[in-house]
Structures are given as structure tokens and as C-alpha cells.
Amino acid sequence: MSRQSHSFPIVLVGANFEDADLRDVNLRGACLRGANLRECDLRGGNLEGADLEKADLRGSRLNRTHLIRAELWGADLRGARLEGAILEKANLSGADLSGSLLAGANLRGARFSAATRVDEGLWVQYLAEVVPELCTAGGRTLNEVATAWGRHDWRACPMHVAFGITSLEEAPPFYRPAIQRFVQFFDAGLIPNPATAPAESD
Fold it and tell me: How far is residue 58's CA from residue 122's CA, in Å, rounded to a whole number?
């Protein structure tokens, strides 16, 4: 009788990996709910589909980490390094991304909720207040900028219409960090047209 191999999910609920070196680890589909991963080095790891609900990931290094479809509901990602991380279709509802570094991260299809926190505050506030203020900071009306929604070209995108720029380097220095974050969220399809769509609710 032939032996059959079975794969079972890794369950590490509430585990303590603080400051651990887990570079290139394979925790695909693992259950890490409430785990302490503070200051943990997970660079290049595979956490695709992992359950990280309410996990403590403060200051963790997640550069180039695969987090496709990861469950990050309520996760604490303050100060986490997420440069180049793949967060495609990840659930970041209620997660705290304050101070996290997201340069080059893939957020396409990621889910934010009203309670998701970014540098500017709650996501619902970002959509309702920060986005309209940024779009009109260059003197154009919100409706004028809204005509470029859905486009992903520096010569036709909202920030081009708002400020007349064709690259981030041309942006006014004071607004450059906000424009950079806007472009990343915009390219990921996370920002609805402020002239036509209400902010997402929890």
C-alpha cells in the first residue's frame, strides 16, 4: 500500500518571534494570529496567504516579502520596512501602517478599510480630506483633476493635472512625500475618484 503525503497548515498562534532572523522563511498559509514578530527579519520570505490577524509587526523587515492574499486585519505594521513587498490582494483592513516604508511595494488589489491607518491618519480621513486637499493644492479644481482619474501616465495622471508635473522630481518639495504616497495608492487602485465616490466604510 502506497504512502500518501499530507500537508498541514503551520499553526503558530501567539508565537513569539521578536527580533528573530527569519530571512527567506517559507510560512505560506501559516496561521500567525496575534504573533509577536516585532523587529523580526522576514526579508525575502514567503507568507503568501498567511493569517497575520492582529500580529505585532512593528519595525519588522519585510522587504521583498511575498504577502499575496495575506490576512493582515488589525496588524500593527508601524515602522515596518515593506520596500518591494508583494501585498497584492492582502487584507489590510484596520491595519496600522503609520511610519511604514512602502517604496516599491505592490499594493494592487489590497484591501484597506476606513480604520486602516496611514501616515496622514485613518484611511477614511485620508480619502475625505487629504486627497481633495492635495488635488487642489496646485490651484486646479477637484473636478478638473478628477478628469484624469483612472490614468497611470505622468503626462495625464491626477498629479500632472494638479501640479503640471511630469515626474516626481518636478513636484514642489513640500508636497513631494504626499504626492509619492498618493501615486502609489492611486496606481494600486485604492483611491476612488473623490469627485464621484464616497470614502470606503468599515
Answer: 18
SS3 category, 144: helix
Which residue, among 13, 15, 190, 8, has the nearest Cα to 87 in the 3D structure? Answer: 190
Of the candidates 1, 42, 51, the one whose C-alpha atom is nearest the C-alpha of residue 20 is 42
Q: Which structural domain range is residue 136 located in?
A: 125-187
Say if residue 24 is in the same domain as residue 95.
Answer: yes
Rounded Cα distance between 74 and 116, Å, is 8
Indicate the pLDDT class of residue 8, thresholds 50, 70 and 90. low
Q: Establish if 193 belongs to a structural domain.
A: no
- Reference 142, options 160, 158, 121, 154; nearest CA is 158
Q: What is the pTM (predicted TM-score) of this model? A: 0.85
Query: Which triple of cell numbers denotes residue 27?
Result: 510560512
